[in-house]
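Field reference: sequence -> structure
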Amino acid sequence: QVQLQESGPGLVKPSQTLSLACTVSGVSITTNYYYWSWIRQAPGKGLEWIGYIAYSGSTYRSPSLKSRISISRDTSKNQFTLQLSSVTPDDTAVYYCNIYGSDDWGLGTQVTVSS
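Structure field:
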């Protein structure tokens, strides 16, 4: 059974860099044709797809966020990470990781950007 779990700070100050990790169990993140995504949902808004890192290590980032995001992985920990720089209160959201195109999601982690 595949499980994904997000972790990271719940509170980040404006202009800082947010770092989140998604730890995966039940399948290796290097398994062929798996794409590991980050998605967020701001209060009162719909889901916003942030980007993914592929089984090969290649990444694709949302054009609207591309200049501020970095997605990487640590295969020794079976984990992939998201970094979002220069955060503002508009980045306040619940952040999820998931297997792209599947129903396998983490439970989400609340991130609040506030001074």
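Note: Strands lie at 3-7, 11-12, 18-25, 35-41, 47-54, 59-61, 69-74, 79-84, 93-99, 109-113.
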